[in-house]
Each structure stands twice: as structure tokens, then as C-alpha cells.
Amino acid sequence: VLKLPKSGGVVSRDANYRRSSRSLALRHYFYGRNKELYPHRKHVSFKDINVYKAAAAVSSAMLSTLPIGKKSLLDPNRVTEVKMTTANLKHHILAVLYAKNAKKMLDFNVAGFVFVEHVDEKKQMLTLLAPAPGPLPSKYLLHGSITWADSH
């Protein structure tokens, strides 16, 4: 890995600025720039969806523990199922994929995003905020690291 100097004119953004920009972008996605959109609440059973995380989302800290010159034997395109718990899912943004199966899900396009508003582990139900009404286009959802607290 070779560290390169920043190009001229590059402005560093602090964490607070990036966080507020991301929150604003998500608010615009679900509610529109002028609050002209109305997201829809969906109640989805755990058995009706599958949530996965890509192995590439594994932290670089784990990769730094490898001996010098060694590469990880894990396939970066491998997906692992995410356990449906409040700690794992609440307030996370999930990508809805057009996938037909989990094995090749990373090869498919993203249909859109949903926000996990609530996780009811007893009833095994998720409350999702979606930008459009109707059923999800697929039961395969991709979990990332983006969280959001909807303050609308």
C-alpha cells in the first residue's frame, strides 16, 4: 500500500459534517427535499426476508492482524446471514436487492433502501420504513454499516 498526497483543493471534512450530510441525504431519500414524499411503514416477518452482510464489510483491523505478505483466505464476495436481533438491525439502513438467491446476491442490482425502525424479537417482526408502498421486490436484504435515527 502506497500512501499518496492529497490533490490540490481537497478539503477534509470532519466526522460531524459527514454524519450530518449522510443524515440529510437519507432524510431526502425517504421524505424528499421539501418533505413532498411520504415513506410507508411495512411490517415484515423474519421468515419473509433474509438479511446478509458482505464479507468485504469486515473491518480492516481484522485484515491488519494477518502476517506481513499474507492475504486473507476469505472470499471478499462471501455473504453471511445476519442474526435478526434488535442490536444487529434497529436503526440500520438495508439495501433491497433484486437477487434470486443468497449465493450470487452481490451480482444483482439494488432496488432501493429500507430503514429498520423497530425489531420485535418476540413476534419475530420488523417494522421497516420504505420509500414506496407495496411488497419488497425481493426477500434478500444487504446489511451495511450505515445507521440513522429518523427524527421526522
Structural commentary:
With 152 residues, the chain is an alpha+beta fold. The chain has helices at 15-31, 60-63, 86-89, and strands at residues 40-45, 50-54, 79-81, 92-97, 110-120, 125-130, 140-147. A 7-stranded mixed sheet has the order 1-6-5-4-7-2-3. Strand 5 (110-120) and strand 6 (125-130) form a beta hairpin.
Short description:
This protein is of the alpha+beta class and 152 residues long. It has helices spanning 15-31, 60-63, 86-89; strands at residues 40-45, 50-54, 79-81, 92-97, 110-120, 125-130, 140-147.
Number of helical elements? 3
Query: What overall geometry do the principal axes of the alpha carbons give?
Result: globular
Order of helices and strands: HEEHEHEEEE
Compute the number of strand runs: 7
Major sheet: size, sense and barrel closure? 7 strands, mixed
| N- to C-terminal distance | 43 Å
Could you tell me the radius of gyration in angstroms?
18 Å
Helicity range: 10-25%
Question: Which whole number gives the mean pLDDT?
Answer: 87
Strand content: 25-35%
Judged by helices, strands and strand pairing, the structural class is: alpha+beta
Low-pLDDT ranges: none
Which strand order does the major sheet show? 1-6-5-4-7-2-3
